[in-house]
Specification:
471 residues, mainly alpha
């Protein structure tokens, strides 16, 4: 099951990658092997719509607006077909991003600027390799002389920030056209020298001029003007709707509550507690938005505990099957850490049931939407099955059943894949189906609560809060 959330982009002529995970970390096979991702994405969308885990730098937003603006200027609507115009603009944006990345890399070599210039740069290793390969005699460089990323459209700025640009009413990614807010933000971004044809990958670009541009345009040089314009975009501007109101409400809740670099689960717990205790009354936030966020936060904690415990049990089987050719589920079920995860899964299932009822009292619409997603993902049935489980070894079997169903596309109707673990006819003895599914010791946890949560996008949101001056 892919982690990408595909928008109405099948006919765009290019791939937009909208993901809740860092794309560069994706394995070639399924990573959502227990089928919890759909619920997680649905919940994350209810608290921080428009953000993903890779929307972490406000400067990328204004840079992309500037790139699209230049692409529109160079390739205006004409007698060419929409598909041809879109491809021309896409190529221009890709070249612009590579030129800007080079400019950031050149700026980072200056002592007074340093590595902050490339903090969060997508493809930074490629930039470093390309610049280190220069002999020192070159004066020009072409953007077609290197690949920024293996798939720049998917993994670069366009793929990482397309959802954000669309949801904040900055651009239409179908046609690569800026909207009014995007034009304003593009104007706030430092422009390259007129002699730098950054839109054309075949044109030689002056290294000196690139470095000059980089001094003003690098990632750490985000300006107050850009911050002001981007704050307006985060609110939705004149086109603002419900999702914009929710996003802005959550950003203000986080800005009022974060006191240090808390772990995400601590921050979300603190925001929920603050809402429940009416600690944010002075902010005068829209009650309907606060209720939606509260209802989602009520569900998130037990949902994540269930995901953590299931992942731990699955990884325990993988780890044991890595060390031994064949493993007994009954024997594994006697281990203290497995018994702890079994109890955690049972209590999380009960709590998740209760949290859905509680969320319904807070915001019925949200609760019903999340319940529909969980039902479609087979988690509703899973909760019933967990209640009927009476032993840790049976819970391990249930985890493997869930994994098998996910791999076979039972819930998402996706490509059928072989399970990572197989059982003998008795159902007790298990082994790995392939060596690549082994779990190395460094990736094993000692207890279920050490398994990390899904990331709920707060890392990037906090960077936007700080750099945009949200209070």
């Amino acid at each position: 099951m892919s982690t990408s959330v595909k928008s109405e982009s099948a006919d765009l002529g290019f791939s937009i990658f909208l993901t809740a995970y860092e794309p560069l970390d994706l394995a070639s096979n399924s990573i959502d092997v227990l089928g919890f991702q759909r619920g997680y994405i649905a919940l994350a969308d209810k608290i921080l719509p428009g953000f993903t885990t890779v929307t972490t730098s406000p400067r990328y937003v204004s840079m992309l607006c500037a790139a699209i603006r230049m692409a529109q200027d160079k390739y205006p609507d004409s007698t060419a077909t929409p598909i041809q115009i879109r491809q021309q603009r896409l190529d221009a944006v890709k070249s612009y991003e590579r030129a800007w990345a080079l400019a950031c890399g050149l700026a980072s070599s200056e002592e007074q600027i340093g590595t902050s210039a490339v903090d969060g740069l997508r493809g930074v290793q490629s930039i470093r390799r390309r610049l280190s390969a220069l002999s020192g005699r070159e004066k020009y460089i072409r953007t077609n002389s290197f690949s920024l990323l293996a798939n720049q459209v998917r993994y670069g700025g366009i793929g990482a920030y397309s959802t954000f640009l669309e949801d904040c009413h900055l651009a239409s990614m179908r046609s690569l056209n800026l909207r009014p807010l995007g034009i304003i933000l593009a104007d706030a971004f430092p422009q390259p020298a007129e002699t730098l044809a950054v839109h054309d990958e075949e044109q030689p670009l002056s290294l000196e001029e690139l470095q000059n541009w980089g001094r003003q345009s690098h990632l750490a040089a985000f300006s107050r003007e850009e911050a002001n314009k981007l704050r307006e975009a985060l609110k939705g501007g004149e086109e603002g709707g419900w999702a914009d109101d929710v996003r802005w409400t959550m950003l203000r809740l986080m800005a009022a509550d974060v006191k240090r670099e808390d772990a995400e689960r601590i921050l979300l717990k603190s925001v929920l507690s603050g809402i429940q205790r009416n600690r944010f009354a002075d902010l005068k936030l829209p009650a309907e938005c606060v209720h939606q966020i509260q209802a989602a936060l009520v569900i998130i904690r037990p949902y994540e505990r269930l995901s953590q415990s299931f992942q731990f049990l699955f990884d325990t089987v993988r780890g044991a099957a890595t060390d031994t050719t064949e493993v007994s589920l009954k024997a594994l079920g006697k281990q203290t850490n497995v018994l702890g995860a079994y109890s955690a899964a049972k209590s999380a299932a009960t709590e998740l049931h209760a949290s859905l009822d509680q969320a319904r009292e807070i915001n019925r619409k949200l609760a019903e939407e999340i319940l529909t997603v969980l039902t479609d993902a087979g988690i509703g049935v899973l909760l019933t099955e967990i209640n009927a489980i009476a032993s840790a070894s049976d819970m391990l079997s249930l985890v493997l059943d869930r994994h098998r169903d996910i791999q076979q596309g039972k819930f998402d109707k996706g490509e059928r894949k072989a399970p990572w673990v197989k059982r003998d006819t008795s159902g007790d003895k298990v082994s790995l189906t392939a060596q690549r599914h082994q779990l190395v010791v460094s990736d094993r946890k000692n207890s279920w609560d050490q398994v990390p949560w899904h990331p709920y996008r707060t890392f990037g949101a906090l960077r936007f809060i700080r750099q945009c001056g949200i209070r």
